[in-house]
Amino acid sequence: MQGVDKRVINNVPIVKIYTEKFKTVVVSVYFRTPLTGGSVTVRSLLSRMMIKQTEKFTSNAVLLEYLAEHYGAHLTSNVVKKGSDHIVKFSIEFVNDKFIMEDIDMLNDITELLKDVLHTPFNYDDSDEAFFEREKRLMTNRLKSMRDNHSQRAFEMLLETMFETEDYRHLSFGDLDDLERLTLDDVKDAHRSMMTEDEMSILVAGKVEDKVFDYLSRLHSHEETKMYPYKGYPVRGVPEVKYKTAHERIEQAKVNLGFRVQYSEPGDVMALNVFNQLFGGSAASLLFTNIREKMSLAYSIHSQVDIKNGYLFVLAGVDNGNIQVFEDAVKRELKRVTDGDFEASFVEEIKRNMLSSRKESMDKPRGLISLNYNTLLKEQSVTAPVKSWTEQLEAITKEDVIRIAEKIKLDTVFTLKGGIDNDQ
Fold first, then answer.
1. Taking every annotated instance into account, which residue ranges of this chain make up the domain Peptidase M16 C-terminal (predicted)?
2. Exposure b/e, 180-219, CB count within 10 A at least 16 = b
3. Cβ atoms within 10 Å, residue 9
4. Which CATH architecture has domain 2-216?
5. Which of 126, 162, 196, 325 is most buried, judging by how many CB atoms fall within 10 Å of its CB?
6. Phi first, then psi: what are they for 150, rounded to 5°?
């Protein structure tokens, strides 16, 4: 049994996803605002600080002890880019008290904890300076360790090259140079803006009754409805392909190709989703089967897409001597799709795998939350009725995949390779 009930209380949408599949309940709180380079780093740091200690639980140890006492409740935060927005998400998963012999109101306790988490930064003062500096240092170390990962750094440099003048170049978790300049006042300002200006949504999944709306409505209220259209960045043409190479002491080159998809009709979004899985997004894909397995041109290779914006990325580890051969091979596989040189049965196989993966994600409470949040965003950005995800997927044909492939244009090739910088 499963059902979705959405209500707007205190100008904040609350979505209850009732399911009897799980013994746990998950509550997720989303804050969404247009992405700007000046805000991602401070919002990322803020989200990490907020789940470490609160006004009531004045150290991480005390907070963790409280969570442990509540049968191992798990509190997390993360930041993501979605469309042209930056999203801060707080989630907590806890055992449904229907499965606990002890007389405890888990939902009440968890709600009070979340409220404490969300509102504590309003009261940050000089006594929190040491806490701020510690979290800033920990985040600095984390960003440095990510930068030390050659694959991650190559992808970041691809984004910087491909989106040189666009906000999309900014990573969801922030920038080291921006982090170094932050003060506690910056964090407080970002929190105040998030709580007053961001679009806020609350979703809960589990075997919960309607009283959950009364509990979750206590978390926060807005004086007026905050609702931003959910949209991607404008479609841009590709006048010419950009090439850039950087050199470091690495044995295996990282070759990344960035493509822009020239979206022109609503069906393009799902068609790109299917294309990606067929092209390089799965173990059965053309890139994996032909370039990695048959030709042995790449140690690793996959494609990934930003569906909302229409961006496709091919990321691979390649021998330094095979870089041009590899690039030509990727282009050849794309042409293979535009030429229709694949079986319609392959498309149907990919669609079955996608449907199976989606069903699998719905067997997890966090997956249910994510899928329903996507639905909530779509409801806020379209006025006409739209077909369900499954109906859209089932409608995709081989011809649709060919048509979307024809709209995919190579924008940037970025290579991080070993050797001396003498061939740029």
1. 182-353
2. eebebebbbebbebbbeebbbbbbbbbbbeeebbebbbeb
3. 15
4. 2-Layer Sandwich (3.30)
5. 162
6. -60, -40
Question: Confidence band (pLDDT; 50, 70, 90) for 381?
Answer: confident
CA 171-49-143 angle, 5° bins: 35
Q: What integer pLDDT is reported at residue 424 of this predicted model?
A: 40
pLDDT for residue 423 is more than 60? no
Distance CA 10, CA 30 (A): 15
What is the residue type of 409? K
Residue 344: predicted pLDDT: 97
If you ran DSSP here, which 8-state letter would residue 421 be given?
A: S
For residue 343 the two structure tokens come to 């079986």
| Alpha carbons within 13 A on the beta-carbon side of 308 | 15
- The CATH superfamily holding the domain 242-417 is Metalloenzyme, LuxS/M16 peptidase-like (3.30.830.10)
Q: What is the pLDDT of residue 419?
A: 65
State which H helix or E strand residue 42 sits in.
helix 40-50
- Phi, psi values for residue 230, rounded to 5°: -90, 110
Portion of the chain with pLDDT greater than 90, in percent? 88
Beta strands in 264-365 (DSSP E): 300-306, 311-319
Strands 311-319 and 300-306, bridge-based pairing: antiparallel
